[in-house]
Structure formats: structure tokens, C-alpha cells
Amino acid sequence: MMRLPPPVSTRKPSVTTWGLVGLIVGATLLSLLYTPYAPNAVDVPSRLQPPSLAHLAGTDEFGRDIFSRLMAGGRISLAVGFGAMAISLLAGALIGALAGYFGGWIDDVLMRLMDALMALPGIVIALLIVAISGVGFTNTALALGVMGIPVIARVTRGAFLVGREMEYVLAAHALGASPWRIIIAHILPNQVTTILVAASINLAGAILGEAGLSYLGLGTQPPDPSWGRMLKEAQSFIGVAWWYAFAPGLTITLAVFAFYLLANELQRLAQPVSLL
Amino acid sequence: MSYILRRLGTMIITTALSVVMIFFVFRVIPGDPAIIILGTEADEAQIAALRSQLGTDRPVLEQFVTWASSTLRGDLGISLRFNRPVAEMITSRLRVTAPLAIYAITLVVLVSIPLGVALALIRTKTVNLAFSYLSQLGMAVPSFWIALLLMSIFGVGLRWFPLGETVDWERDVAGSLRALTLPAVAIALPAIAIVTRYVRSGLVDQLSQNYMRTALSKGLSFYRAVYGHALRNALMPVTTVLGILFADIVAGTVVVEQVFALPGIGLLLVTAVNYRDFPLVQGIALYIALVVVVLNFVVDLLYRVIDPRVRLHKPA
Amino acid sequence: MSLRISHTNRTLVLAASALSVMLASCALPSPPPARTAPEGATAQQPAAPAQPTRLVMRTLTDPDNLDPHLSAASLTQQIMLNVFEGLVKPAPDGSVVPAIAESYTVSEDGLTYRFKLRPNVRFHNGQPLTAADVAYSLNRLMGKGTPDGKPLTASLNDVERIETPDDSTCVITLKQVNASFVNLLSTLAIVPAANDGKHDKEPIGTGPYRFVSYEPQQRIVLEKFADYWQDTREMIDQVEFRIIKDDQTALLQLQSGAIDFTGVSAEQIETLGNAFTIVSHPANSVFIMGMNHARPPFDKLEVRQAIYHAIDRDAIIKAVFDGYAVKLGSNMSPVMAKYYQDGLQDRYPYDPERAKALLAQAGYANGFTTTLSISSHADIYGRTAQLIVDQLARVGIQATIETVEFGVWLERIYTNREFETTLIDFTGKMDPQAVLGRYTSDFRRNFINYKNPEYDKLIEQALRATDEKTQVERYKQAQKVLTEDVAAIFLLDYQFNWAMKPTIQGYTPYPIFFHDLSRLRLKAG
Around Cβ A102, how many Cβ atoms within 10 Å? Predict the structure, then answer.
């Protein structure tokens, strides 16, 4: 078991963390109602314009407004991130809880399965899912989600190994509560921050993973933007339009940064937390 | 001993599970190696000829039995795409991947441990905050972005390091190291951010333990206490992280390999999958499964041999 | 500066080591060759024994097969046409010129071809070429005398028999007249019978360069063949094709000096400035949007016409190719000057109003929805698709892009024809039959299901024509039919842009994928 950094001394919520997370999620949600330009509106005559008041982050090779596309891109990037996290979290937490609570052969079988999954290269999982059901953001989320299952399962299992020895759990057991009830009503709430920390790290990783898969051509479908695909598409214009690649690159970095900080925040609430 | 035997058993099962899974999944998914290899310009005759040459026109079970029995005999078969023995292709990739992995891990260890110790000992609020932000930023930058930046600055601008060369390390160690420096740095940077965090927090944790106070009160010098005991214990979890990291790199760092055009395992794997090169995919999957399983085992063993809890209660 | 020099030296050590691996059987470690002295020194030693010259060129992907008879990929041909020759070989203007055969005659009825072989042709293993090798190679392609008896190509289906009356004569008799026959021979490699069973591992040909080594995903190395039947003294001694998938990586490597030659995209040309020579030429490609004629509404001519009017090819050329492309109107590039039917590119100008009217006429006044299925293996499909989707939306057609892996694309769309619309570029062929023949009803790869008996007849007539005038005439008519039927949306022919060090001279564009190394020269800086 390992420990992430213990809480930073201050106890008040971090302005930076919540500010950044709020900004990114807020801008993305706002894009559902308003973007300066339609994110997919092509305007070839005004292609590759540098940032200006009219186009805050410049335009891309089709004359589309990069700022609007970044706002809209958040929908897909965050959906991939949260989707992947949800898959990893649901499957991982369930597997980890069962293994950790019951132990014995159930633990053995489930953990061997997790080992086998971990022993499969992540990129193969992604390539396989793409080969079967095509490129698309649900498949990207699925691939990244499946890759994240073993880690969450291990964390949850660890938390449950600790949790099931707690006195109140033993008491509930003695009172005849069913295993499911004990898992859901007694252990889970007390270990929830542990799992949430792992989940927000998983979320940050999935956003970064989306960028990596997009680079390899396994990301989302055009024309709807995602941050990773925008960065990939901008790559051949680095020499002529620096802003094209800079904007999505910065956005990804800030978003991942924000969710890592969020993990830290959650961890401060949880006190030292075991990971892996 | 029985523990080791049991572990060996599960290792074999884990490996076999993932490889058999790969075999059948690949037979089900769409994509015909003969069509993919020949591309749009092929005519039917060429495709049929290639299919029978590759043996992909036989029943799946027959293919499996053939493959499984020859694999058990140590023969991984011939790559459909490259027409070469799979084992030979994997070993040739290891000549790039192995030095790269060792180089990157060495960089990580050399930077993270001193840095983590320093940060644990100098704990002012500003340093804490600055490090916390910096390390998380380090983890947040997309890897191909770092790689392209490194190439532009140190490969094209300053020309400190050559691009696009792989030098055989058996022939020219210095040259090989120089050629691998940029990719190793690209892999190491985010890893350094992570590992430094573990070193620092592990050490801070140990420093607050009772045994440290005991040790110090018994007159042990602060530095001996830190380096002899606290750091040693703090490095235990770091070993796990390094083990995972090492397995990751040895299994192939696809993105960095593609950006630097390095012929490593990862790039070979992607090509193998894209071309539905069944024997090659199976061979690499077997190799990666073995690496992951064995490294897990080694880390577990390390844990058993030097269990920190045992040391924790020993009087210093 | 000193760093720069040591860098160069190491490149050479590397080259030497590759060489010694290749020569391992001789157990002679070759001494590291010294680099040509810096500027100025060369002028003083013109008579000195030539220093080995070396070039590193980038190629995009691995060869599909080193056996020329099993290879079908254009990118493999681009390199290996330097190693292999046919009885005739391609010329830069798209015609064929004598190669292994120094001349040939055709009988009155157009059925019997008599090839006179060049006397001094040697294979790379030193063995002289005889008519038996020619017969062996062509028979192997036809599946005669091979283990499974299956032909390796359909190109020679019209051949009745091959005879070798003597060592330097080869007589080929056809079942029926085939106007493309000599064209076809230009890419059918003649290989030594003695190398049977090893063509894919140790390829041996008669070309100006011989194959040295191939390391998957790394490099293919070729070396000048001193015993070539033409003078090779001016040619570059060794050429390495470095396999680099990523375009940006290739550009950076060019700038860092690691490679000397690479294809670049239009945007990258601007980045390079004046430090490199750029050679741009039309690729002789045909980039199309294919519509499945077997699926409504694409079975309706008005719908296809409407789509043609709805698509702004100029915008695509500007936004996706930065202007480096020419508009097409039928399935032929202007590079094929002799056969090209001009004017068709203006038949369906960009006219959204016209498009809407045509849609209404076809009964789709409110448009329809469709799927544009593209492969993920090259950027141009995704980028073009985004523009097309936007343009179609303006006339009421709601298209969704579906991206699939190239392997899936080949199987599902190209082979099984399960799609509505798609994008694909056909790479250049010198033979008009190969270019236009893909639209005949019975063609195996007529994946868009285009069927027009009139078209089939024109193509058949062109193929069987004994005089060139009729042949050219029929091919031009065929192009018009394709345009009138809107067999596909013929978009454009893009250009290749090659960036190279200024010391490289003599790069000669071909209408097919071919880096002709025999014409390249290295001039001192």
C-alpha cells in the first residue's frame, strides 16, 4: 500500500482548484447554450487567422473559430473522461468490493482476471474496440474505461480489506446484516473518498488518454471537435499557425491539471489515502 | 516455497488467459490480413494467392491448434506482414526498447529520489505549493506534445541530439545513449513528476513515525536516521511505482515511439494489430503479458523480503 | 559546429555497420568510408576514385512484400522499381521505353509479340539474364509451374503462351488483341529462375540498384549495381529509405539533417523556407467521393448531379491542399495528356441552388440523411469529409462521418460494398485501361456498383483496338460517359511535394509512384 502526499497544511478550499474546474466545466456547459461562432461553421476565406478580438483563439484551416470549438470540444473530451471514469469506477469498484469483502477464492479469481486485463496492452484494447465498432467517442470512452478497471478494483479492494475489519462493520455483521447491505451501507460510505480520489486521477488520465488515442487516429470522429483531435489536426500547422496547436494543448494541460488538483483536494478531506 | 509455486501457477494462468483471449478475439474482428497487406490495387488472384500462402484460409480451430502447439515448442511462427520469425522481430525490438526503458528509469531514479528527499526535508509552504503545482503540471502535458517540443528545440534548433537514429548499444554505448536521450527524457518527465511525489510523501510520512523519534532520541544522527531508515522504508512504495512504470515502457510506449520514429515494441504492436498480423500480435501479447506478470511477481517478492512493517517495529 | 561534424560521422559509422551485417558471409568488415571533404576540396580531386555517395530518403510505410510478383502497394513500387525491371520500363512522360528487351515487333493481327532481349543484362547476383528467366517470371505470374497453380495477377489473363526460340528471344502469343499489353509489362518484374522460393527474402532483379537490406519499420537500403546495362558512374552509391510514419517527425528530421528527402504537405512547405529544394508535381491521382449506386437515393442521376453541384471543389483544394491540387471532372488526371478529355471539370460547377432544384426534381426537396464512411489511415479523408459534410448540409443533405480503420474499410466498403458514400484516392497508373477499367460492370473492384453497358462497350473497344487513334477516341468518350452519369464525384488530383536538400539534383517526376534513383545526382553544396 502506498500513500499519496499527506494533506497540505491549509484547510480552506483551494481557489485555484475549484476555480479551474469551475471554469472548464462551466465553459463546456455554456457551449450547450452559446458559443461565439457555430463550432463546425466552415468559412474557408478566413482560414488560419491569428488570435484577435473577433476570434479569441484564432481560426483553423477551415476558418472555424478555435475558441468556439474548444468550448464545444469540452463536451466530448469531458464526456469521454467522465464516461471512461464511470466505466472504470462502476466495474472496478464492484469487482474490488467483492474481492475485498469476501476474500478467499472469489478474491483470487477476480484479482487473476484483473491481472490478465492489466497484462493486455492498453493500446490493444483500444485498437480492438475500434476495429469492432469503429472510431467514435463512445468507443474511446469504453477503451479508456476498460483500461482503468484494474487500478480502481485494486484500490477498492484495498479499502475494503481495511474497511471490513472496522468495529462497526464487525458489529453490523454480528447483527445479521446481509453482505450487500454491509458493503453498500456500511463500508462504501466510509471508503468513498478513497475511491473518489482514485476516480478523479482516473478522470485526468482519461482526458490525457483521449489526446494520446487521437494522436494515433483512434479518437473521436470529425467534424465534432474534441481537444485531443484538435491538437492532432493542428500538428501539421505548427510552423505556420502556432495558435492552432497551442490553444488545445493548453486546454488539455489545464483540464488535466485541474482534475489532478481536484484529486488532491478530495484527498485532503480523506486524510492520507492508500492508492494502488 | 509453496507461495512461490502458487504464484508461478497463477502467473502461467494469467499469461495463458490473455493470450488465448487475444487469439480468438482477433479471429472474430473484421479485417483480412491478405486484403490489408495488398491494399486497394490488388486483384482477386493476388489476394487468394496470399491467403493460401499465409494459411489464413484454414478453419480457426485448426489455426489455433497449429499455433498453440508450435508456441509450446517455443516457435512463435512467422509474421504475416513482415515475413520474418516473430521471435526474431521481438528480440530485435528489444534492442531499442530495453536500453530505452533502462535509460528512462535511471533518469527517473536519479532525479526523483534526491528531489523527493530535498522536498521532504525543506517543507516551507511556498516550496510545498510550488512543487505540488509543478509536479501536477508535469503530469498534465500530453506526451506527444513534450516529444515534439523536445525534438524542435534540442534536435532541430540546438542540434544537441540526433533525430531519427538508433545506434546499437553493443556497438557504441555513448552514441546509443545520445540517440535515445530525447525519447528517454520524453518518457521520464511525467514519470519524474509522479515518482517525486511518492518519494516526498513517503518520506514525510516516515519522518512523523514514532520509530524516528525513538531513533533520534537514542542519539542517532538525523542524517543517519533519514538515510538509513526513513528513506529505505519510504522507497518501498516507490519500488512498486517504478515496477509498473518499467513494465509500461518495456511493453512499448507507442506515442513516443511514433513521434521519434523509434522501432520499439509499441510501434510493432500497433502495426501488427492494424495489419491483422495474427502471429505477431499473439507473440507480442505473450511477451507483454510475461513482462507484466514477472515484474509484478518481482515487486511482490521484494515486498515479502523486506516487509516495511517488520522493520517498523525493530528497535533502531 | 564540432557537434555537427561528429553527428555526420556517426551516420556513416551506422551505414558501415549496416553494410558489414550485409557482408557478414564474406567476413570482411568494411572500413568506415570517409565523407567527401567539405566544400572546395572536391574541385581539386575530380580524377580521384569516387568517394561513396549516400542519400537518406523518407518513405511512409513498410513494403507490402519484397517479392515483386506478390507486391501490389504503390509505395513499395515507388522504391522497388529501382531494383526490378520488366521487358519495358516506364518513362517520365507516361510512355514505355525498352528495358530488358531492346526492341519488339508485333504481328499483323496484333496477337504475337516478339521481344529481342538486350545482350548484356545481368542480375544482381552476377548471373546473365536469358530468355528462360523471362519465361519463368511471366509463367510464375500466370500461375504456371507454381505449387497451387493460381495466377499471381490478372494482368496476363489474355496470354495464350510464352515461347523462347533462343536465349535472347521471347515470343508471347495472346488469346485476343490487348492494346494495353506492352504497358502492362512495364511493371511486371523479370526475376531469375535460380532464385525461386527466395524472392521475398533476397529479392534479385536487373535494375540500376540492388537490394541490400530491409529492417521492418526502420529502413530499406539499396546500392548502386555497377554491372547495370547502362552507365552508372554518376549515380548515387547508396540510398537508404528510412521508414517514418509521422509527417511532422519527418519534417523535423529533414530540418535536423537526419534525412535528405521527404514528401511534405502544402502547409509544411511554408515552414521550410528557402533552405530546401521543393519539387511539386501532379500526382496523377484521382480523388473521388464514391456513392453506392445500388443504394437509394444514389441510384438516381439527379441526386448524384445535385451532390456534384453542391460540392465546392475549389474550397477543398484551398482548405485541404492549400491550393496544391487541380480540379477533375472525370476519372482521369490531366497528367495522362494523350488520353485526357479536357473540359469535363467544368460540367458541374459549384451551384447550391441548382443542387437544391435537382434534389427537388428527384423527390428529395427536403434532402435526406446519409453516412460518409472514410478510412482513418490518411488525414486527407477526414479533412475533406468535414468540408463535404458542411457543403452538403447547405443543400439539405445531412451527412454523418463514420471513420473506420483501413483494414475494415478495405473489407467492408471496398470488398463487400457495404456503404452509402465514401472517399478514396486512386493512385496513378500509366495504362488508361487500368485507370478507366475499374468502372466496367464486371470489374471485381467496381465497389460503387456503377453499371452502364455503353461504358463497358467503349472500354472493350478501346482495349481491343488495333490502331491508337480509335483507342484514344474510345477512352475519351468513356470519360464523358462517366461524367454524364456522375459515376462518382470526381474531386481533384492532388500534387506531390518533395522537399530535399539543395545538393540533390535531377529528381524526375513520373505519372506513377516511382522515385527514379538512376536520375538523381549529388552536387557539392
Answer: 15
Specify the range with the lowest mean pLDDT, choosing from A173-177, C32-36, C98-102, C312-316. C32-36
Listed range (A215-224, B283-292, C289-298, C503-512) with the worst mean pLDDT: A215-224
Query: Nearest residue on chain B to C5, judged by CA atoms?
Result: B159
Range 90-129 of A in CB contact (< 8 A) with B: 108, 112-113, 115-121, 123-124, 127-128
**Structural domains of chain B sorted by starting position, each given as residue range(s) with its CATH number in brackets:** 99-275 (1.10.3720.10)
Do C247 and C268 touch, CB atoms closer than 8 A?
yes
Cell of B87: 521471435
Burial track C246-279 (b if 16+ CB lie within 10 A, e otherwise): bbbbbbbbbbbbbbbbbbbbbbbbebbeeebbee
Which of B255, B259, B267, B307 is the mutation pick for testing A, counting most A CBs within 10 A?
B255
Residue pair B234/B202 in contact by the 8 Å Cβ criterion: yes
- Cα distance from N-terminal residue to C-terminal residue, chain A: 7
Taking alpha carbons only, the member of A4, A69, A1 closest to residue A269 is: A4
- Tell me which chains share at least 3 CB pairs under 8 Å with chain B: A, C
Q: State the DSSP H helix or E strand holding residue C409, giving kind and residue range, or none if neither.
A: none
pLDDT of residue C23: 30
Cβ of A62 within 8 Å of Cβ of C386? The answer is yes
Element (H, E) at C371: strand C369-375
Does A260 contact B at CB distance below 8 Å?
yes
- Residues of B (230-289) whose Cβ lies below 8 Å from C: 258-261, 263, 267-268, 271, 274-276
Query: Is residue A16 left, alpha or beta, with left meaning phi > 0 and alpha meaning psi from -120 to 50?
Result: alpha
| Option in C153, C218, C259 nearest B263 (CB) | C218
ipTM of the complex: 0.76
Neighbours of A170 (CB within 10 A): 12
| Lookup: cell for A93 | 469498484
Amino acid at C437: G
Is C412 a residue whose pLDDT tops 80? yes
| Omega cis (within 30) before A223 | yes
pLDDT of amino acid C398: 95
Which residues from chain C sit within 8 angstroms of residue B53, using beta carbons? 70
- Among B38, B36, B44, CA closest to C408: B36
Helix (H, G, I), strand (E, B) or coil at C288: strand
The domain ranges of chain A are: 15-29+64-270
Could you tell me the pLDDT band of residue C289, with boundaries at 50, 70 and 90? very high
Q: Which run of H or E residues covers position C420?
A: none
C427 → chain B, closest CA residue: B41
Across the interface, do C70 and B163 touch by the CB < 8 Å criterion? no
Instruction: Report the interhelical angle of B125-140 vs B86-121 (nearest 10°).
Output: 160
Task: Count other Cβ atoms within 10 Å, centred on residue A22.
Answer: 11
On whether the A15-29+64-270 domain is CATH 1.10.3720.10, my answer is: yes
Beta-strand pair C169-174/C159-166: antiparallel
Show which subunits contact C, needing at least 3 CB pairs below 8 angstroms.
A, B
CA A245/CA C14 separation, integer angstroms? 35
C353 near C112, Cβ under 8 Å? no
Q: Are B139 and B108 in contact (CB under 8 A)?
A: no
Cell output for C80: 522497388
The beta strands (E) that lie in C2-127 are given as 54-59, 88-90, 96-98, 101-106, 112-117
How far apart are alpha carbons C422 and C441 in whole angstroms? 19
Task: Indicate whether B279 pLDDT > 80.
Answer: yes
- For the ranges A151-155, B22-26, C145-149, the lowest mean pLDDT is seen at C145-149
Distance from CA of B288 to the nearest CA of A (A): 7
Under DSSP, the state recorded for C450 is -
C-alpha cell at B95: 534492442
